[in-house]
Design the sequence.
């Protein structure tokens, strides 16, 4: 088994999930609470990675962070090296790619918080920010766990975006899913089987966790 | 300038009668205003606009010297800064917090010593001793109501807003808490606004009553004035009780109370204590009219009076009688003709003790 690839994959998934917990909360709060008439425009953008082929998403990210784009140039000026085909570039792509997997469970759980509780908190003089952390978050833990775990699991298995943005650099951007592809190309079926089984086991375990924590927030199967 | 509350708001919801509420009244340390009206009349929306939870399209909300809302000069004070206590109809207790946690929730500004002291005071005042660690889901309806009220008054608000405070309780608890709530509100010395559709609640709790119908405040005034002298037919129909007069219990036996009202005595069902002050409430359709000098009936009350006014209401006739206090009776046109009632004719108004409702006013 390629332990380097496993380590990179776990690191990538962990950092993606952690970042999405921070970045996803305000987005989900806005999605859940905004009464803006054109809100659906933003909601659709957040959900885009669910339907776009990873290659399309990867292509746009590659162009966006490449040396010819303002974003890419800014990063190169600040850090001194370009973003594409690095672990950092891959992390950026993964965050965008897994965004709906965090934001949607977060927003769904915020939607389920009774607005009367939130109003009661406001009338008691508690600010919106403090209400969020002392009332909304404790009432949404199941959704938050679901979002973090799903974005972790989703990043574990990503392939197309990694290939487009990260390339296939051993020790830097070669993740488990790409390693398996390489093994199969090299006709090393035993290696591929081992790594595949590892990924299968981890994914199953992670989903077990989600369903054990709460079946309501992200139930795929109908409720009994 | 007298301490006044001034409300003038317009709020529309798609597909519903727009709310255009305009009223003002003067407040002292413990004035209780009742927003009274049938469901759908816009009472709750008005309360929510005052709390700052709804934004009216247009209007002003002024509480004593502070302007909370003035759309023309773009003033809008957030609910956090209004310093109000607000209790919604279903209490909205925080499910993840204990009784203590709920009461202490709005006391973040206090030091932990002061906070503990304040919570302790309220636990005693609201008789919640022993329930400190309980979660809201483990409490009875009456206990939940007390926790919600304690939470609302904990940060010492300058105005208390209660939306149907008793409607979520069963009938027996409601009856018990109605009286308690009034003495509690007086004890707290805190002006309050209460939304209700129950006239006994309105009369028990209110110092001033604003009657709402179709999104408008139709009449505002003292409880007995609003009930006994409705401004128009719409208000009369909403309040539904035509005679409300103040009296005192002078005798009490086996659940039958004798009440003195302006020199007349009345019998009513009720176990109110001797000496207590009550509102005597009588619906016009419960009043029977007899010709003076006719025979006995089973009715406990026979009041001798004179007809002071006759107002036709379709097939019915509203007869106003002066019998020590103004009493309204509703009879059919035929009955009126048989009794040959005209303004000035002597008449006896009879009603069963059960038709005389007593609302305690302590």
Sequence:
């Amino acid at each position: 088994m390629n332990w380097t690839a496993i380590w990179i994959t776990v690191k990538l998934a962990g950092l993606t999930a952690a970042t999405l917990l921070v970045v996803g909360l305000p987005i989900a709060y806005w999605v859940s609470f905004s009464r803006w008439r054109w809100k659906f425009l933003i909601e659709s953008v957040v959900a885009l990675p669910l339907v776009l082929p990873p290659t399309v998403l990867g292509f746009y990210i590659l162009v966006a962070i490449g040396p010819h784009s303002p974003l890419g140039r800014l990063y190169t000026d600040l850090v001194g090296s370009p973003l594409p085909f690095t672990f950092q570039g891959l992390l950026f792509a993964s965050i965008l790619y897994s965004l709906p997997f965090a934001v949607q469970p977060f927003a769904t759980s915020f939607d389920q918080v009774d607005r009367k509780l939130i109003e009661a908190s406001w009338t008691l003089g508690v600010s919106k920010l403090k209400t969020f952390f002392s009332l909304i978050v404790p009432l949404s833990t199941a959704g938050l766990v679901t979002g973090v775990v799903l974005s972790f699991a989703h990043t574990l298995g990503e392939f197309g975006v990694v290939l487009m943005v990260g390339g296939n650099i051993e020790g830097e951007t070669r993740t488990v899913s790409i390693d398996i592809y390489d093994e199969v190309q090299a006709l090393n079926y035993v290696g591929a089987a081992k790594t595949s089984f590892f990924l299968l086991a981890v994914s199953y375990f992670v989903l077990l966790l989600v369903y054990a924590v709460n079946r309501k927030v992200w139930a795929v199967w109908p409720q009994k | 300038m007298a301490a006044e509350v001034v409300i003038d708001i317009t709020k529309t919801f798609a597909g519903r009668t727009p709310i255009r509420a305009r009223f003002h009244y003067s407040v002292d340390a413990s004035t209780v205003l009742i927003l009274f009206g049938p469901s759908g009349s816009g009472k709750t929306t008005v309360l929510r606009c005052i709390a700052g939870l709804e934004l009216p399209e247009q209007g002003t909300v002024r509480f004593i010297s502070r302007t909370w809302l003035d759309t023309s000069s773009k003033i809008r004070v957030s609910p956090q800064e209004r310093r109000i206590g607000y209790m919604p109809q279903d209490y909205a207790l925080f499910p993840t917090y204990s009784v203590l946690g709920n009461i202490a929730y709005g006391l973040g500004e206090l030091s932990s010593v002061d906070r503990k002291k304040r919570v302790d005071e309220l636990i005693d005042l609201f008789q919640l001793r022993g329930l400190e660690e309980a979660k809201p889901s483990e409490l009875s309806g009456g206990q939940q109501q007390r926790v919600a009220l304690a939470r609302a008054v904990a940060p010492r608000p300058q105005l208390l807003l209660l939306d149907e405070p008793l409607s979520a309780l069963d009938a027996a608890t409601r009856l018990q808490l109605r009286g308690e709530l009034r003495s509690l509100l007086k004890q707290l010395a805190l002006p309050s606004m209460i939304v209700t559709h129950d006239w006994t609640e309105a009369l028990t709790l209110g110092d001033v009553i604003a009657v709402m119908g179709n999104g408008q405040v139709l009449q505002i005034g003292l409880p007995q004035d609003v009930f006994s002298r409705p401004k128009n037919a719409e208000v009369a129909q909403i309040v539904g009780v035509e005679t409300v007069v103040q009296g005192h219990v002078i005798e009490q036996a086996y659940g039958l109370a004798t009440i003195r009202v302006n020199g007349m005595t009345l019998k009513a069902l009720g176990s109110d204590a001797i000496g207590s002050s009550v509102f005597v409430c009588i619906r016009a359709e419960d009043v029977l009219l007899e010709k003076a000098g006719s025979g006995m009936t089973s009715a406990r009350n026979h009041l001798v009076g004179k007809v002071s006014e006759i107002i036709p209401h379709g097939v019915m006739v509203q007869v106003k009688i002066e019998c020590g206090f103004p009493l309204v009776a509703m009879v059919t046109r035929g009955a009126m003709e048989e009794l040959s009632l005209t303004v000035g004719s002597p008449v006896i108004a009879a009603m069963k003790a059960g038709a005389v409702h007593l609302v305690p006013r302590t």
